[in-house]
Known about the structure:
single chain; 273 residues; alpha+beta; 3-stranded antiparallel beta sheet; 20 strands; 22% helix; 30% strand; elongated; LlgE_F_G-like_D1; cilium; FlgE/F/G-like; Flagellar hook protein FlgE
Amino acid sequence: MLRSLYSGVSGMRGFQTKLDVIGNNIANVNTIGFKGSRVMFKDILSQTVSGVSAPDENRGGVNAQQVGLGVSLAAIDTVHTAGSAMTTNVVTDLRVNGDGFFAVGTVDQVDVPFLTRAGNFTVDPDRNLVNSEGLHVMGPDGAGPVIIPEEIVSFSIAQNGDIIGVNADGETINTGQRVGVVKVTNPAGLEKIGGNLYQMTANANPGGEILVGSAGDPATGTGTLISGQLEMSNVDLTGEFTEMIIAQRGFQANSRIITTSDEVLQEVVNLKR
């Protein structure tokens, strides 16, 4: 059988995966805090037809003769560039202006929360700050879930995450509650688990450790919090449609390799006639 058949098949599989990733990116173009992905390829081990010979006193060196065996996936990377800001003027809508993720989870998940860039939070009947799935927003340094105190009638959120309240007497007070931010060394190493959530891995932070810190901390390099704004998806439709055209043409070209290889094999079979 011709090696080109298998090379063509590997190319079609690779571009099919690329189209799957592009389709998911486009589907989430309006998803809050979504980070698009990209597909990277690598060539498969080549078959050596003739080896290398070094030069000597009488003759120069000869290069190796190798035939490639196709293509395979090298990586599917999550691109963590910042998305555009959308102003909502809702106090509990938060955007991380810089590096960092919000930590959310259940009460028994304080030590291993999920991470997210989607800051569309609300206050539940128990005055807990939660996301759209009902997961608690965590405070820094193991402080646990963020709770809005009952004695205040309104509040705002500062750039460092502090909950600043106004009581019934009109006095401005610091409630002692603060929204935490997690700095991740390698955001591309996080694992997507759906629902705008990421799960920490050993390739994202050393040992998979999660340290919930404060926003705008110079020591850790976390970004500040902007209240009344949300981070939109970082998907660029122009780039995605361009990549879709490239993937489509690549798929077609590889299918042509299979068709041509089949025609060559047919000619070989016809030699018997």
